[in-house]
Design goal:
Elements (H helix, E strand, L loop, with lengths): L10 H14 L6 H34 L4 H35 L6 H10 L6 H22 L5 H7 L3
């Protein structure tokens, strides 16, 4: 039969074809019949994979050639703004406060030092995590579906496509 090693990315088409043939053909089918069926099925699957790749490429090209530069980045802006807030609250502010406390600036009173230590416990509210997580999740799923060639009104609304 065929060597199932992935040569030039064709292994997945052969694997899929083999599994499909095993499910379709009765166990009484000969190896020669199965091999012929695989031989006939592989070009069809390769053509499908090529079409999907071309659609993905076309989507990316169309997206990058939009005239409205901000529209291309509007949803990622929400993602990056959220990441910035996370970095600010959990990394930057605590690092600044720790630096100030380690330097032991003499002009700070014990009350001011206590207030600074309270800011070490800053955290983003649950509402932020719910809203940001929802936006990122929905946008990521929509982009993944769009890149995989799926097109419909909902995906267009999610990703801003036409």
């Amino acid at each position: 039969m065929f060597d199932m090693k992935d040569i030039s990315g064709l292994g997945s088409a052969f694997d899929f074809a083999t599994k499909a043939i095993d499910k379709i053909f009765p166990t009484a089918a000969t190896e020669a019949e199965k091999a012929q069926a695989i031989k006939n099925l592989v070009p069809i699957l390769e053509e499908r994979d090529t079409t999907v790749t071309k659609v993905q490429r076309d989507i990316i090209v169309a997206e990058m050639s939009q005239s409205d530069n901000y529209t291309k980045r509007a949803r990622p802006t929400v993602v990056y703004a959220g990441l910035s807030f996370i970095a600010l609250v959990y990394i930057v502010i605590p690092a600044i406060i720790k630096t100030i406390l380690l330097v032991k600036i003499n002009f700070l009173s014990p009350g001011q030092i206590g207030a600074l230590k309270e800011y070490m416990d800053l955290s983003l509210p649950g509402e932020f995590w719910m809203a940001w997580g929802s936006v990122v999740s929905i946008w990521s799923i929509g982009r993944s579906a769009e890149k995989n060639g799926a097109t419909n009104k909902i995906i267009s609304m999610i990703t801003g496509g036409k």
